[in-house]
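User: Please predict the structure of the protein below. I'd like the answer in structure-token form so I can feed it into my own downstream comparison script.

Assistant: Understood. Taking the following sequence of 177 residues as input:
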Amino acid sequence: MNLTKILILVGLVGSALMGGLFFAFGTSVMSSLQRMPAGQGATAMNLINVRIQNPLFLLVFCGTALVCVALAILGFVKDSPGKWWLLAGSLLYLVGVIVVSFAVNIPLNDQLAAVDPNTAAGAAEWLNYLAKWNPANNLRAITSTLAVVAFALALHAGNSAQADSHRPASSVSTVGA
């Protein structure tokens, strides 16, 4: 197995882990917090936002981004089977996860943390947070999942090309008229 395939696998697994996290948040965690009284839901989310910044999460979140940058560079530099899938998977993760996180989700997390969740202003901020954070999170879940598919297709394209290169050339016979 060569370095490119290892990087693709790491990108695939990292995207899958992040997509699963975003999916779980969107389908269960956020809907549960939304059903709580505003102050309690916001307090719980603030705690989650602090606890998620741990070494393992950051390794997967940032490590996958670095791998995607490397894969995008390889996609531009190397003319190999599946290069467009490499580029697609990398862009899906980098734009759909990293850019959306830093442009939408993280600033909303910071805004929520800046207000007292047990005040009227805190309750209003919580409603604003839910209205904006959830759609952005769902976008991250979708783009992570699509990145997984793109990386799987890149692996498949590389494996198909490798298998074709190991097949003996077929003899072609021509029949005269």
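That's the full token string. The longest helix spans residues 120-166.
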